[in-house]
Description:
The strands form 10 sheets. Strands 1-10-11-12-13-20-17-16-15 form a 9-stranded antiparallel beta sheet. The chain has a 4-stranded antiparallel beta sheet with strand order 9-14-19-18. Helix 14 crosses helix 16, helix 15 packs antiparallel against helix 16 and helix 19 (634-644) runs parallel beside helix 21. It is built from 21 helices and 30 strands.
Amino acid sequence: MEYESQTRTDMNAEIPAGYLSRPARAAALVLCAALLPLSHPAYAARKIDRKAVVTRHNPEIREGNLRGPMQVGNGEFAFGFDISGMQTFSDNANTMSNWGWYRFPLPQGQRPEDFRGAEWEAQGRMVRYDIPNPEQGALRDWMVRNPQRINLGRIGLVLIKDDGSRAGIGDLTDPVQRLDLWTGTATSRYSIDGREVVVTTVGHPEKDAVAVRIESEKVADGTVGISLRFPFPSNTEFGSAADWDSPGRHLTELSPGIHMASFHRQLDDTNYDVHVQWDAGAVLRRTQEHCYELIPATDAREISFVVCFDKIVGNAAVPTFAQTRSASARHWREFWEGGGAIDLSGSSDPRWHELERRVVLSQYVMAVNEAGSLPPQESGLVNNGWYGKYHHEMIWWHCTHYALWGRWKMASGMMEVFADNLATYRRKAAMQGYDGARWPKTIGDHAWWEWPLETTALLIWQQPHPIFYAELEYRQHPTRETLEKWRDVVFETADFMASYAHYDAAADRYVLGYPLQVVGENADPRTTVNPTFELSYWLTGLRIAGLWRERLGLPAKAEYGRVYDKLSPLPVQEGVYVSWENIEDMWTRYNWEHPALIGAYGMLPGDGVDIPTMERTLMKVHREWKLHETWGWDFPMLAMCAARLGKPEMAVDYLLDYPAFDFDACGLVGGGRAPSPYFPGNGGLLYAVAMMAAGWDGAPSGNAPGFPSKGWVVKHEGLHKAL
């Protein structure tokens, strides 16, 4: 695809004078944009038929072997299921939570506190980093794998054919599975030996529970039932987190009752309960260690049951199927009726339906997987990607969309990790000779140690993130309370950023690096300095931190202003930005992975950016980047840059027309270099679409400034501007 060069001159607004004296770059953003309206009132007032928008994208699946499961859940807990309506056939259908974690035993006599890492030179001094060293291989491996999320249990169906054998997935005739997004209710329908089976699956919005109803003649004759299996953690990455071959390493204690049973699970120091309740006669039997079957013993043609996973041992309150279904319907109706919405059905571009589908399904899967107490891992609650650990640099792509869609409350729980862990990462910064707090890259729940790796130790683009989140929340709630809530995190983050920048006296400038690893994680960290994205983000973070001092009535901090004024300019070669200052052969050796340099005026508002230079850069990236070797969030980032540069056709194409940015029938993102599923792609899409519809600081006036005027009719409400 080729695009004509077109630059909107009305984007070139000057930054108002403030406490920072750095000259405005040509791409300057409006400093006081937080006071501007958050959406276009004329369009916000329009009423969208939200139920019609949502339900026209209800997933319908007829294929038995999908790469990724359909799910129900509540952001803290998710239950994935295959075409059967349960976890009968697929290893991709798992049960995971934010509270289910496990630690394998430490190597004998070793502790994570004993990990020495390695010392590297950092601008003339030696600094210790959590980088692997040959003397501590076993400890390093343990720190990588621990803690990790666990598979809480597999709940499948017992399906018996007329000849007495167990049915396989190939024995299901004419399967069809539908998910009603408006109520969060899935219905799976198929036949076995000519007899229909209908399975209804629904998750509870407040309890970590899944409710199931089975309707079939097979219920009455006892040839359909429930299978419950409990695994040991697998210690493998990207899998189901289930080891079925180590029965002696964990305990399952059964406590039967009337129409119910409780299972106490003990995996060394990890303990939780599983409660099962059913509404008709049934026989519960143990088939082997950690494996049970619940077979109906009733003349009725249906049976319902509820399985509740509980981190609180001894808490046996289990809702009924009807209560769960009612609670789910209420929850999802409130979800869809609240927050933002977008309707593209008036568009003549035939791709409107697919873009709207991606938007609707992304909202659902993010609410199921990524609205809990912890920042999400890249694969949400689908599998054990990266051993279940979350990535601090990716929180932006998982969570910022909640602010633009008016659902910031759904991100508030996970944002507590910054205040909760501030002291830990203040100590880390001090140990390395810096002020403030240095935020980690990859980490697990209730663990202070990072994944020991060169990249994790040296990545820096996550450092300004908390300032960005604080600003998003302040725009939602511009109160003293918000300022006080975030003040320590904002200032400790900015203190580190100012301290990290190295003063080059000979050139009278501040430098980022060395060592550092860039966003694309494909540089030589020992020599890399001044990456484009990170330089722009440093300016944005320090500028906003200064604004927060003003809001709190505090004097300007000289260190912030000094670094801001003299930070190195974004590096340019032959009229275009390059990924870092001293790069060689960029467009042949480094034109893969994340094209993060364009994120400085897309994901970010453009501090330090010259718009004509960025326009030339985007066009060169478009022509020469290996876009098949990228990750899901790269395409929304490209779309946001194109939108800011006045290229809306290009922006839409990036969201729809590339195989490396693929959405399956359930709305899960795959393609490119990313393991599937890859939720930053979903979050990125939602942020980009909201930005293209509601605008951004300094955007041209009018509705949907990031969408083409030809072929697209964008009706939206409740959306907020991007920075």
